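Whiteboard transcription, Tuesday session. T.W. wrote the structure tokens on the left side:
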């Protein structure tokens, strides 16, 4: 029994928490915003949500009212209709890709840019709804791949990898 406890503690010490993982991947070049604060702005006409994941990821589910901006094909012209004074909240699976898009937005003169802390995974981990292409609430979340999918907590959503 004692050996089992020791082995479990070794495994636990080797596991990184989601917060630790996020700290290791963020450059902190774009201000972070918590999911609860974003949930209060979903219908705010002065706030624009940009989903920076792939088209496949967006098609599975996204935050309500989010506009699709493909990370791999991003051009600043895609957001030229957005007033530079509006609050822009970018997100992806965990916040890494969205931070990179946020940097480009800031370079282009958008000053009120924020990155959703923990991305869509943290959003779902905190029990907020996502919608599919038809705008209907869904439990499915594209988790990019199985390695990253571990950060979507069990029971918080249906993990989709393709």
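and on the right, the sequence the group agreed on:
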């Amino acid at each position: 029994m004692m050996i089992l406890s020791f082995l479990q503690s070794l495994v636990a010490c080797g596991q990184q928490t989601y917060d630790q993982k996020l700290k290791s991947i963020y450059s902190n070049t774009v201000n972070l915003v918590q999911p609860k604060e974003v949930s209060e702005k979903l219908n705010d006409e002065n706030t624009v949500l940009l989903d920076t994941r792939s088209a496949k990821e967006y098609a599975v589910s996204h935050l309500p009212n989010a506009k699709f901006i493909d990370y791999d094909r991003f051009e600043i012209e895609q957001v030229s209709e957005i007033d530079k004074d509006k609050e822009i909240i970018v997100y992806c699976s965990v916040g890494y890709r969205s931070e990179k898009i946020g940097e480009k937005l800031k370079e282009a003169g958008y000053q009120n840019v924020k990155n959703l802390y923990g991305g869509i995974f943290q959003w779902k981990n905190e029990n907020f709804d996502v919608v599919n292409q038809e705008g209907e609430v869904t439990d499915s979340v594209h988790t990019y791949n199985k390695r990253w999918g571990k950060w979507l907590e069990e029971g918080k959503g249906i993990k989709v990898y393709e």
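Someone added at the bottom: The first helix runs from residue 2 to 14.
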